[in-house]
Specification:
8-stranded mixed sheet; 23% helix; disordered N terminus; TIM Barrel; 12 strands; alpha/beta
């Protein structure tokens, strides 16, 4: 999937990469060899024909939830159009008749402003109501499984919505560590939900600051500088401090929750190159182990988006190509 100008296509302001149309794709995946301790069956996933669905743009199965976030407009390019989990479920036989064996849906988490695309999370433990409820999601996935269809969720570990900013002079321009901006919420009534709110009672008081949860270096201005790519904000979206043990452990807990509660069979992971390699080498094995041990999914599959023409960089995120612990299983195409 392409992004304009090395960005998320202004997910917050315009979501240009979807342009308000139904997008679907049959995805061909390139597979890396896994270490035996975490073996995923390459044969299983190479055999899949994956159909991509932007949930809101697919089919409206329940008009009652259309305006749940008060931004429904069937003709708008950035507003909600009404597609939901019930809509996908109602079309499962049609999808299967196409020869599809797996469905890849857009992110399900509660977005900051009810965005139709899902890539601007605010509460990573809740379903955004304009797609339906957790029960609706569970029912759709169970119905897909009953038809022999696997279900992949699109997820984001790099960022949330743009809820944080700074009043410091020059904010927006990238500054290199140890320099950084003082962060604050734009609106005290719209904050990140636990575990990424600074008011979380379980979070040590000494770390009770936004700069311990989010990078405070400003926006990416040079996409050839990997320091900016990993520490800077992409399209102004709040960038998680993924090198933090607290963020890493909670990101694993969040997506383990979705595997167990919803029954997903795999993850497509957004903006992989914008997160440092150490995160993936920690997070991926933890999620694989959880899926195999707690959800009987030894072949849980994770493929990432690395929007870059540098093949060595793209390859470094798969298998053990980057050296050290295991990272992702594969990548989506086209990238770069």
């Amino acid at each position: 999937m392409k992004k304009s100008g090395n960005s998320l296509g202004s997910l917050v302001g315009g979501a240009r990469r979807w342009m308000g149309i139904l997008i679907f794709a049959l995805v061909i995946l390139c597979f890396a060899t896994r270490v035996p301790a975490q073996a995923v069956s390459n044969g299983l996933w190479q055999a899949q024909s994956i159909y991509q669905i932007i949930t809101d743009r697919f089919f409206d199965g329940d008009p009652a939830n259309n305006n749940a976030d008060a931004n429904y407009n069937a003709s708008g390019t950035t507003s909600v159009h009404g597609g939901d989990f019930k809509g996908i479920e109602q079309k499962l036989d049609y999808i299967k008749a196409l020869g599809v064996t797996a469905i890849w849906i857009s992110p399900v988490v509660l977005n900051g402003r009810g965005q139709f695309h899902g890539y601007a999370g605010r509460d990573f433990y809740k379903v955004d109501p304009h797609w339906g409820s957790l029960a609706d999601l569970q029912h759709f996935i169970a119905a897909a499984h009953a038809r022999g269809l696997l279900v992949i969720d699109d997820i984001v570990c790099n960022h949330g919505d743009d809820l944080i900013y700074s009043t410091d002079s020059g904010f927006g321009n990238f500054v290199y560590p140890p320099a950084g901006y003082t962060l604050r919420y734009r609106n005290s009534s719209k904050t990140f939900a636990p575990p990424f709110d600074v008011y979380n009672a379980t979070y040590n008081a000494a770390n009770n600051a936004l700069t311990n949860l989010f990078h405070n270096n400003g926006s990416i201005q040079n996409f050839n500088d990997m320091t900016q790519v990993t520490l800077g904000e992409l399209s102004g979206l709040d960038d998680f401090r993924t090198e933090s043990a607290y963020v890493r452990s909670n990101m694993a807990a969040i997506y383990n929750f979705w595997i167990q509660q919803a029954g997903f069979d795999g993850f497509r992971i957004d903006t992989v190159k914008h997160v440092e390699m150490g995160f993936w080498q920690s997070w991926c094995p933890a999620v694989h182990d959880f899926a195999a041990t707690n959800s009987a999914k030894p072949n849980f599959f994770m493929f990432g988006e690395v929007y870059d023409g540098n093949e060595a960089l793209c390859g470094s995120f798969t298998g053990t190509k980057g050296g050290g612990a295991y990272a992702l299983d594969s990548q989506a195409w086209p990238e770069g």
